[in-house]
What does this fold into?
Amino acid sequence: MTSTNTTARTGMLDTFLRYGFLIVFAGFFALFTVVNPIFVTPGNILNIVEGSAVLLILALGMTLVVSMGGIDLSVGIALDFGAAFAVVAMKNYGIDWSTAVLIGIAGGTLVGGLNAILVVGLNVSPFLATLGTFFIGSSVQRIFTNGGGPISYRKMPEEFRNLALGDVFGIPSEVIIALVLLAIYFVVLQRSIFGRRAHAIGMQTSAALVAGIKVKLYVALGFVLASGTCAIGGIIAAANMRMFTPLAGFSYLMDAIAAVFIGAAINARGRPNVMGTVVGVLFLAMVTNGLNLMGLDFNTKDALSGLILVGALALAVSQQKRG
Amino acid sequence: MRSLTLTRLVGIAPLLIFVAMLAYIGFNAPNFFTVTTADLVLKQSIPVVVVSLGLAIVVMAGGDDIVAGGIDLSIPSTAALAASITALLVTNMNQPLIVGLLAALAAALAIGLVNALLVTRINMTPLLATLASSVAIVGIASVVTSSRRINVTDPAIVFIRDGCILGISADVVLVAILVFVAFHLIHRTRWGMNMQAVGGSRDAAEISGIPVKRFLFSSFVLAALAGWLAAPFVLARGSGVSPGVEENLLIEMVLATFLGAAFSPRRVVTLWGAVLGAILVAAVSIGFKSMGVNVFWTGLIKGSLILIVVALAAVSSRTRT
Amino acid sequence: MTHAALVMKDISKAFPGIQALDKASLEVRPGEIHGMVGENGAGKSSIIKVLAGIYRAESGTIFVMGKPIENITPEAVHAFGIRFIHQELHLVPHFTVTESVFMGQETSGPFGLRSRDMRRRAESFLKETLNASISGGALIRDLGPAERKLVQIARALIDGQARIVVFDEPTAPLSSDEIAQLFQAIRALKARGIAMLYVSHYLKEITEICDRVTVFRNGRDVARFEQITPQSGGELVSAMVGRELGELYPPRGERTVSDAPVLALRDAGDGALFEGVSLELRAGEIVGIAGLVGSGRSAVVDTLYGLRKLHAGGMELDGKPVRFRSPAEAVAKGIVLVPRDRRNDGLVLSMSSAENINIASLDEIARFWLESRKRAHIRAERQIADLDIRPVDPDVIARNLSGGNQQKLVLGRWLATDARVFLLDEPTVGVDVGARVEIYALIERLVEQGAAVLISSSDPAELIGTCDRILVMMRGRIACEVDAGGLAVDELVALTTGANGEAA
It folds into this structure.
């Protein structure tokens, strides 16, 4: 389908739309500051950054999958599995914390493995495959916890807890972990030859195939790596709360998707990208924090952030169909 | 010719699985194949039937291909919101039922409008659009109910739940009428035929002069309307509205609608298929429950079934071309 | 003189760099089957698109039954009674015949659709007007290709308002029996006085069914044949091809042809589009495949590259059996493809020239797997200079390049690897003359350096000008193999179109 309309959108309008999101970002920032000046204090800003660590980790995994033209609705499940495997390993099997972390990551990659089999092996569309994984993963968690109750682990090893609560030279360790992952993803996805191939797959899959790129391998790896990354997020979440909360991952799903699409919209080529995702994550974390500071009850907060999400996504997608 | 049999087999597989499950239940559950159970099954399936009608319409207009085609995941949330608004007005604010329903209708139409615009104007994939909107809708519903359960004891709602028309449960009769009306609209009018054409092949419809975007737009509004229509039945079944009522409805709606495609002679999503699918899903749920199976295992089975149906559809479309 | 049903006079249409139509004219009488022939790019599809209101002509007029069409839009053209039977069926697989025939024009009464009435009318139309017994309740996906074509025709004509029908390549997917069935229907329409325009590459069918034929070349009607007989094939070919061959092709240089084939197919079939195909590619040699749409040559090329699966027979690389499950495996062995759909499969249009050039050889520009922008630029600039790609800036987005330069970009990408077998599928489609000359020179250079080249093309002159030998494919099989030296273009065209009465 040739749309001749897109060529008309050049110059000023295009620039506005591209920066439109940043304008919205600044607007909300100003609004929250006016409503509650505590918003701009360094302590609060640190709160926002710290609170966005887990979301950023999930959004990084999502960025990888979306940049190859897919989507992953099971990121929350990977998070949950990561937490579950790690906590159970330590609590029920007395395994030491570092091995438990590895086990947790392995648990998360199971989710990605299932997605990879469905999408690459059986040719199911990524949306449906990950939707199915999401449904199954949710049920499995309910069965495992006999109804959805959390598994708490008070005597969690200090080192494990420190993954979330400790700090290194004053910077919270969860932020450091997130930054490390951010750096890795940035280098791989935006600067390495693997990232170049991944982007080619997302931009024009058939051309990437003809150019000799191993599309199936990359897509499968993408799902596995993304879920492994989300598992790390789950481990941090579990360390934070000293428990595994089933289905906790779901609340991150829409935000992760939105962050990636917002990031794509502010990119010159309309492509999903790591730094753009960071902006998206910060925006959403800022909105959550700002709404909190407004002293609204949690229902109103939910409703407002849901509406803002739809609006932000709409703005992002309407800009994205350029590249 | 071998590929033809394989395609047929793959297409029928979900139906066979279901029949097998029912047979298994029949052997293991006491008194499963009785009139009382049948009545129970029908009543349980009603909210799913109504929302599945909405999903079937969106799929029929948008195309079977779930990636680029039509889907609306926000219908159950719309039903929950409509039920919440009605319950709030009727129980907490002592308004007549009609006022509650009208307010809910306004909300539902607004949702339908937003979904339609997101898909046809902003060109968002229906999946993303309706997924996002359902999050917002659930948030709004939580404001309406303050995340608390609201009871409803309005006589009309009670009648739907307990009453009988001509010896059959009132809710069953009402939904049956709804299904017949929908069927006539979709399969017996020019408008309905054209909408199916849009979903069947967008190019073919365009060549035949059918306004594609207009039909896509309407399908989302109708889907939201279906959500609104489901609200009274949701209220009846639950004697009110509780937070989270849309979750189970979502998975059953998706399962019922796509399972229904396997039952239809043309192997596409149809109204009757969706209705039959909803009834079968309810039958299996009730069956497993009466066998003492953990409700979460049933959830796992439903999730796996969706995957199986979807995987088979993907495989069969490969063997067909 | 019989009053003409359709007259198109002096139609001109230009695109940037190409004059698609140059004062072209056409005339069709009622009850006449008027054939339209010409090579790719001769103007056939352009003039049809002008008639359909898809293209806006710069000059010229269209008359239907003597009345001019003022504003040539699809709606106006339809209102004037002109119907198009496109090459694409545009039918819904799960619809019934009745539903398909009446799509967009259903009849309804107070109780809803008049299903029984429509079914009766569909079946009787198919039977009486098209000579076809097809059940109104049958599903499209259960019908054979000829029946589907007839349903498509019925849909266009059921309203009884059609006066002129344009057939665009109607027989490409049909077997000879099905073609006979279709021709029966077309003759039935002729008997009703409907004027028909029949566009096709298959000269055998043109000479069989058409009354008169107009030949297109270089954007205009260059010849009209008033009396067509089954023997007219040769004359048609001459008119289509004309006299010009030009200085496009470089002289054949010093070549060392290897004894053993580098890549070969042995009795290969894919179970759908071709079977029993055997061919050998040798280093230092250029082999061509000629054939019309539906001949299977595209599928053969795809199979060599791992884009299609072999169901029968085998493939050999350097004499050893091999099977490519994906292009990645082929590329790893030094076999590369320049695909026919350059914009979708050849380039990532939103990437820059440099990115496209390096995409298949990223390891070469990497330092510890990180892209070195400097190295990427150096490599890209080398290819750009070598191939004279314009614009010279390696960061220009590929979408903004002309067709010829885009094609050179694709070639540049492969030249940056160690490719030794080049599969070229329609290498100069949409490419301007200047770039064509450069591409042919490049191909010659490659072969002199020891590469093996396969060219699949619908341009017979191109095949003769570049190849050493040419395989002709027809309807899935290799019909014959000819030496390119000394072959005349007419002869090759005659072979590919079956103008000499070759069986389909």
Remarks:
- The radius of gyration of chain B is 20 Å.
- Chain B has 13 helices and four strands.
- The longest strand of chain B covers residues 150-151.
